[in-house]
Structures
1.
Amino acid sequence: MSLESKKIEWGIVGMGSMGTNLSRNFALNGYRLSLYNRHLKGKEEQIALKQKKKFPELKDALAFESLANFVSSIKRPRKIIILISAGSALKIFLKKLIPLLSEGDIIIDGGNSHYKETEKINLQLNKKKIYFLGMGISGGDKGALNGPSLMLGGDKEAYKFVAKDLENVSAKRVEGKPCCTYLGNLGVGHFVKMIHNGIEYAEMQLIAEIFSLLMETFQGKINNIQKELESWQKSSSESYLLAITSEILTYKDDNGLFIDKIIDIASAKGTGAWASESGISMGYPNSSMIAALQARFTSKMKTQRENLSKIITLKKEDATISIKKLKIIYDICRLINHHQGFEMIRNSNQIYNWNADLHVIAHLWSEGCIIKSGLMKTLEKEFKTKASILEMDVFKKNILEAQTNWNSILNFAAARLIPIPCISSSWNFLISMTQEKSSGNLIQAQRDYFGAHGIMTLDNNKGEIINGPWRIKN
Ligand code: 6PG
């Protein structure tokens, strides 16, 4: 190893858009880097070198296709960030990487890995005395370049060693506070990122539903919709996702608006499904993200939709909508979406013995990431005194006042045949969660009738499980 290469502070693996942009960000912050990308004959050749040549800020970085040379170029204890596809690609890569590492090296997985996988890898690496951090990164490739939101979990000693560097490259609030924090052990960083993505799915779907409702109101005049959404951006509804939506709607080419050219099939890489599943496995009604995920699934059923639209032709009824009311409901649906996501983190703290502080997470998500918004900044403040969003006084008045607005939006959507799965599931969640009584007693009776699963009666304060009178009769 040359004297020069001994100064290499960070190794970055994976020169896709995220890896390249994060490398550029590190380089712009003055760090010397070694860059590695695999060699796949005819498909991926000299990728690290090509990226180094493409971006002037990477001129001092060393580019590798040999993993052994890459590893030995980095100053010990090595600090390596991996930005490759989660799952099997990561596993295969780690198998090759681990034998080349030394005790005390720090490996950071910056992909969208499942938090349970992160836990397994963490424990496996610790056996070899290698430190591991699972790092959720948000902000897309632009965030990776300009400052992403970084959510870390894993070995605390390792975090202390890399904290300053990661804070330097992360997003900052105007007052300079970095959006980068250690949240706890094992998979918590990736868990929190997964919940971020679940919230992201529902935020996107809510905007898509608002868009459909506005399309009906403005008779398809996208210019008007664009202006309307732009004006929402100057209000309590402000968010990064709303901002990019109104910008997207301005794009045109010779044949008209670009949005009209895009096939109406929404893809998903998996984190939204994981987030949805995790609500199910912890027994939490995370209906907003599930509705959003299912809306993507419905969008994929293009052929079936086309066929059924010919067989079942439903009739639209006359109805109008107030845009002011729509905006009020949009704000409340967002509140419910955030409420559910943060409640899932609160639950996970109990299940996994984590201590991820909700106000810290709201801070992490207030800059750099895809779900940054004015609401998130309010939540950051409010979580200091209240643990649950629907209990926060600041939102109470709006929620109570919105009841008649809900009616009109739900009725309008039903009359004009506009699917609003996320908005209507938010209504159901709000109404269900704010009523003392549920219909769960009838479910219990049914379970007991057919399967002797037992019931608890209100007059039994010992919590005894008994069988109902139908069991005696049968
Ligand atoms: C981010 C994003 C990013 C990506 C997700 C979701 O925070 O930067 O969440 O990680 O958008 O992978 O992608 P899908 O919509 O394809 O599931």
2.
Amino acid sequence: MGVFGGTFDPVHYGHLRSALELVERLQLQQLRLMPCATPPHRGQPACSAHHRAAMVELAVAGEPRLACDRRELQRTGASYTIDSLKALRAELGDTLSLGLVMGCDAVLGITSWHRWQELLDYAHVVVMARPGWQLPAHGPVAQWLRDHQLADAAGLHQRAAGGILVVKLRPLAISSTEIRELLAAGRSPRYLLPQVVLDYIQAHNLYH
Ligand code: ATP
């Protein structure tokens, strides 16, 4: 099982294509995209958690291997990933392998995450390379990656949590920031995200 946290403001093909490639590459039963309700480490998202989750739901509809996990919308206060992993672990039991998916840019800031060193007690971490970003060669994050790095995807299936796997997927240089900027400038982000998401954005007058 995989869980892919993000702001998804809005969800785009960079997220979705990576998610599907991960499901196939890592032989996941399911990958859940988990919108962060109140991000602790960045400004308020441009639109509400309700809209962001609705867009993720529309984007993954029809692909049974992907789903939207709304658990962070059901808690109040800052959305800490560690709390979500604990809840997921309680639901899934101790033996099912769980992978927390994040992009390279997210890993660079991991030492500022609440109880970051405990993440691996509950899940593996799967790091996706992302165009424009590089993993550090020195410092605490580099050390953490080295200490827990798995040699290959088979390692994910051998235990329930505790390893780090770095994977290279199809590079798609798409970001939510760029999509929001295009919309704000009155330009079209069409073909960078699913049409059904763009229709939702237009119907609800978001990001202009
Ligand atoms: P923003 O531009 O608002 O920061 P974003 O496009 O980075 O948004 P997020 O919702 O913040 O999207 O990203 C969630 C996760 O998805 C992060 O771990 C990020 O690294 C990863 N991600 C986002 N876009 C891509 C992409 N094009 N390719 C690979 N990973 C991506």
3.
Amino acid sequence: MYQTRIAGVGHYVPENIVTNHDLEQYMDTSDAWITERTGIKERRFFTENKDTTARMGIKAAEQAIERSGLHKNEIDFIIFATLSPDYYFPGSGVIVQNEMGFPNIGALDIRNQCSGFIYGLSVADQFIKTGMYKNILLIGSETQSNFIEFSDRHRNMAVIFGDGAGAVVLSRCDNTGKGILSTHLHAEGKYAQELINYHPGTRQKIRLTFDMLTDGSLLPYMNGNMVFKHAVVRFEEVILEALSANHLSPDDIDLLIPHQANLRISQYIQKRLGFPDEKVFNNIQKYGNTTAASIPIAFSEAWEQGLIQPGKLICIAAFGSGFTWGSALIRM
Ligand code: UT7
């Protein structure tokens, strides 16, 4: 069996910065509340006719491919993780395939929300390990600011989410103990209703009604408290599961890159694992929660800051809607 290594990383965030103070103008919230409850100070929102989920993904992908040293034509599969695709169908992966001028390689969209990047990484890893593909482009990209309502009734979600994209190029390598050591994936669908966007789904004969435009039922719903309580348990559990599967301990991890859901969640995990600050990478302060894009954006920034050097053991972990969660251990 082959092994999978991360050959290149990249990210793109829209130029439009929206601060907590900006949000104060639209709803009953405050910089103090948002900072204290989430750690977020600002986020990026897409610019219409410039940024789309696919286009932001393409910008991140171009950077990842360039940094990998590969030629675009060496990529033989695309995986695109998002909960906010350009269209209801087809997926955004095919848009990337077309707009980046790839030949007719396969493109798979992953619908696993905050865990989407880790689910995508795991799928790519299986394809590469078995020899089916050699180089896979994995993108996480989100445009969330246009399905949030900037109002009092949606303030618990409006202040958290942001837009952006990250990408990695995954490449086949010999089995020398480097690369992706393991991925662990989980789901608990009985909590699907706790973080959900019901409409316009397919359960109703008339999928979009006039009432939905005003009564708030088109907006995503989140039981923030419940998500938080499950997240702190599952994050720790799935990180320890990864370590145990590899006969490693928390001390062996050089850098933890958690999905950027809430700074308090990251800090709680940090405390539970006994990590010093420099072992946990956080950038939610600048970007908010970018769902499937948060880990690859953070990975790319950590790499730019020189925190991801050859030989280092990196752990990524995520939890979110579904509920779904997962982890991966990567030896660089
Ligand atoms: O990416 C994975 C999925 N998402 C997550 O992991 C998010 C997990 N959950 C969270 O991060 C937190 O639950 C939130 C940040 C969403 C909310 O923080 P919280 O400490 O759980 O607050 P809460 O929902 O218990 O609300 C406390 C109070 C409420 O007021 P009352 O009922 O005590 O009067 C809310 O109405 O805060 C109020 N509130 C706000 N106040 C100012 C809710 N949102 C806001 C807001 N500004 N934006």
4.
Amino acid sequence: MATLFISDLHLCVERPRITELFLEFLANNAAHADALYILGDLFEAWVGDDAIEDPENARIVGAIRRLTTAGVPVYFVHGNRDFLVGEAFAGATGCTLLPEESRIRLYQEDVLIMHGDSLCTRDSTHQAWRAQVLDPAWQQKFLSQNIAARMAIATDLRQQSDRMKRDKSMEIMDVEPATVTHVMQRHQVRTLIHGHTHRPGQHEFDIDGHTARRIVLGDWYEQGSVLTCTADSRRLETLAL
Ligand code: MN
């Protein structure tokens, strides 16, 4: 038995093979898991839960529903692309929405799970954008528009973000070490699992004289990426297309 962590699938019609890989992953790898944690950016864009009615999204929602119906708990932490995933999505899939910083019991250890973009505090333009889109007034105004208008705004925001990223160094877009230490101290954990940066790896460092670990999940652009945890092992693996 294992607990699985994934993030940054960025599912969209432009990458149909990734959607197929995810559906296979749900039907096979995840079918006998203790739990599946999706740590954000499952979707390239999510403009509101009425997007469930889109046929492609309905397939994905249905596949997660089959997994939860079969008894595998699925947990979802919002990413910066799918921050509007809401209770209707949770109801349709049977998944549980978790806060951005969630401390969970992973076999013998309490670990912290996050999407990760809130850790990139050197990236001030991203943090300003994040503050804007997480503002309830902004969300209410956005959601009051029809779905076509929302999709157009989302495309525009993504293009803006891509243009800004071109001028940013990798260092600015990575997590800020002091922010990582601070959040781990606050939650009293020695292991943090997150995604967002698309820089998969396992990092060891020191917090208050103890060895701390940060495990970064990979994106699903060219392959799948999954962290498989058992009571005595943690393996970061890729899934071939
Ligand atoms: Mn992200």
